[in-house]
Amino acid sequence: MAILITGGKGFVGSALVSFLEERGQTVILFERDISNRGEVLKFKPAQHINTIIHLAGVLNERDGGVYQRINIDGTKNIVDLGKKIGVDHLIFVSSIRVLSSFSDPYIDSKREAEKIIVNSGLPYIILRPSLIYGPDDDKNIGFFIKAAKCMPIMPSLNFKIQPIFIDDIIKIIDACLSYQSKTVLNITGREVITYDDLLKNLKSLNYKFYIVNLPVLFSFALRLFSFLPFSPFTPWQIRGLLSNEVFNSSSWPEIFNIKPTLFSEGILKTIKY
Q: 69 with 37: CB under 8 angstroms?
């Protein structure tokens, strides 16, 4: 029995692979282009694949067509591979953003991918995590942590997030290996954190910067920054970030008997890594 993982070299994937292998699981990385249907369906595992964990996807590409090719068509290809090789279980990591009131290339692609999974006929679990952070995160919260480390001033911004620590999401995925199928779970951090909470946490850890309290001005500047070709954020990511949307979560700590990592603990582990 083995586990096939797409996106196994990404932020979540690399942590998951290490976690599973340390616990004696046989892990196979799917390293082919998931948008290439021919290449996907040519894949012949050397042993039976019991579970596919589908992590691969794009988040911050500016070309809308990429979301169709990777997040939608790629998911369809992985589903068809699962049918071909006879997997018993498919775990798909989607996004809590599918519950958003907004529509954009990323959100729409994840919504379509979920429909493909649900209608696949395979036993599935869909996880919808909120913003994931932790060691090796160079985007999202990681971007702001790196900025705070080298900048003498940090802007005050008005937004809320529900961050979940990488260790928690890895434990949840691991628990799903033996959880009931045809399940969709909303997985958010248990705390709603403001941007100012993040800055206060960093200052308590001896980060040296001054906070400039002009949130409206800096929010506008951040929106403009997102349109620049070298920005790590797309315009729709910034729109979502500044929207202050808060989503209901499934009771995953009780379901899986996992103690959530406090944000203050997660930030400490992130910067000390």
A: no
- Give the integer Cα–Cα distance in Å for 27 and 20: 7
Query: 49-54 and 132-133 as β-strands: parallel, antiparallel, unpaired?
Result: unpaired
Phi-psi map region of 134: left, alpha, beta (phi>0 left; psi -120 to 50 alpha): left
Give the type of residue at 38: G
Q: Per the confidence metrics, is the pTM higher than 0.90? A: yes
% of residues, the chain, pLDDT over 70: 100
Domain extent at residue 42:
2-272
The CA–CA distances, whole Å, from 196 to 119, 148, 211, 215 equal 42, 12, 9, 10
Q: Residue 2 — φ and ψ, nearest 5°?
A: -145, 165
pLDDT per residue as tens digits for the range 251-272: 999 999 999 999 999 999 998 7
Tell me the C-alpha distance between 166 and 159, whole Å.
21
Q: How far apart are CA 148 and CA 257, in angstroms?
A: 35
Burial of 19 (0-12, 13-18, 19+ CB in 10 A): middle
Q: How many domains does the chain have?
A: 1
Q: State how far the Cα of 265 lies from the Cα of 273, in Å rounded to an integer.
A: 12
- The Cα-based distances of 107 to 54, 72, 112 in angstroms read 17, 11, 9
